[in-house]
Design brief:
There is one protein chain. By secondary structure, the chain is α/β, with parallel strands linked by helices. It has one domain: 3-Layer(aba) Sandwich (Aminopeptidase). The protein has seven helices and ten strands. An eight-stranded mixed beta sheet has the order 1-2-4-3-5-10-6-9, sandwiched between helices. Helix 1 (18-31) packs parallel to helix 2 (73-84), helix 2 packs across helix 7 and helix 5 packs antiparallel against helix 7 (237-257). The radius of gyration is 17 Å and the shape is globular. It starts with 17 loop residues before the first helix and ends with a helix.
């Protein structure tokens, strides 16, 4: 596996055909019986898919991606997961692209220049407000998985926020990803100390953070266990999709078996 060496001061890799990807996500979701809901502003084609289980007390798992318009591996992973349809027994929510306008504009931010993943405290963007309104209509989640990329990373890594002292699924994610993608083994990743290779467990003080990412809103309002998955975007897109796919499968399988 060879890094590309393209990324200088930002992501310089492969773009995403977001309209085609979302159409393929919708086709796969429909073929496998997922319900479809729209997030305001729905003119952007922002969709949430829901798959219900008939098992009482099954885990509720939320997966989102595509919040940054320079991170194409997440929406492609969502498409692959929907197409392959290999899910354990769980109630599932899957949001394949929170920022289609950013992908269309070729920007990390939304078309108004707002980094949506720093907007979950003050809600300046219409996309954030629409997402929050949708989330407030949903039940609490037992596990949330947020799919991202990091153009500076030396390999895959994950953030774990575990406020319920639940068994960690992070080691199983790292083990599943290692055969298909490098792991970031650095002792300091994204400015934070790693607790294990490829795993960051930050100490959160939400009230002290002037800007909130999606994960911080979710951990404050909807879940006690959240993972942010970061694929290394200086590797080929296929490798990044393989990494995120492997991590999601490991997380949901370990969590539902626990």
């Amino acid at each position: 596996m060879q890094r590309l060496g393209r990324n200088q001061d930002g992501y310089r890799g492969e773009p995403l055909d977001v309209e085609n990807t979302l159409a393929e996500c919708a086709a796969a979701a429909g073929a496998h019986g997922w319900e479809r809901d729209l997030l305001a502003p729905d003119a952007l084609g922002r969709v949430a898919f829901r798959r219900r289980t008939r098992s009482a007390g099954a885990p509720r798992i939320y997966i989102s991606t595509g919040i940054h318009g320079d991170e194409p591996a997440g929406p492609l992973t969502a498409r692959r997961l929907l197409e392959e349809d290999r899910w354990p027994d769980a109630d599932l929510w899957l949001l394949p692209c929170l920022n289609p306008g950013g992908f269309l504009a070729g920007t990390r931010t939304n078309p108004d220049g707002i980094d949506l993943n720093r907007d979950y405290r003050h809600f300046r963007g219409g996309e954030t407000r629409g997402h929050i309104a949708w989330l407030e209509r949903q039940p609490g989640f037992d596990l949330t998985l947020l799919l991202h990329e990091d153009w500076e990373s030396h390999g895959f890594y994950t953030y774990e926020v575990n406020r319920g002292a639940r068994p960690s699924v992070a080691p199983d994610m790292i083990a599943a990803v290692r055969p298909v993608c490098p792991i970031d083994e650095s002792p300091l990743i994204d400015g934070r100390e790693a607790s294990e290779p490829g795993i960051i467990r930050p100490v959160l003080t939400p009230e002290e953070r002037p800007e909130w990412p999606e994960a911080l809103w979710l951990i404050t309002h909807k879940t006690s266990l959240s993972y942010t998955l970061e694929a290394p975007s200086d590797w080929p897109l296929k490798i990044r999709v393989n990494a995120l796919t492997s991590a999601v499968r490991a997380a949901v399988n370990t969590f539902t078996a626990g």
